[in-house]
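Please, structure for the following, as tokens.
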Amino acid sequence: MAEEHATRAEHKSFDRPDEVREFPLGRLELIKIGGATVGRAVFKPGWRWAESVQPLAKTRSCEAPHFQYHVSGVLLVKMDDGTELICRPGDVSLLPSGHDAWVVGDEAAVVVDFQGMIDYARAS
């Protein structure tokens, strides 16, 4: 299917996502384009994966790999191996499976994810 899409131009907007998933202190908007799924997540102040999404995922830590661009806010990511990353606006992060994350400060963290949102925040 991706090959079909590669031969024609496409345009979509997060203003009209194909799917929306709501979870405590957050929201995920998904668009399907070019045979891929791209997600924009908005994490409000106080959001933490372990408290907001873990009850839906039912895994010890976030198992979704992420390749994301950080639009606004500050997100602290702690990998299962103890590595910590502070992601700020303009950053690009590549996160393998096995992490927790939370918003730092009083501004919502907004990320656009090009890899790991297909099953994110979907009840198991």
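The mean pLDDT is 92. Residues 74 and 120 are 20 Å apart (CA to CA).
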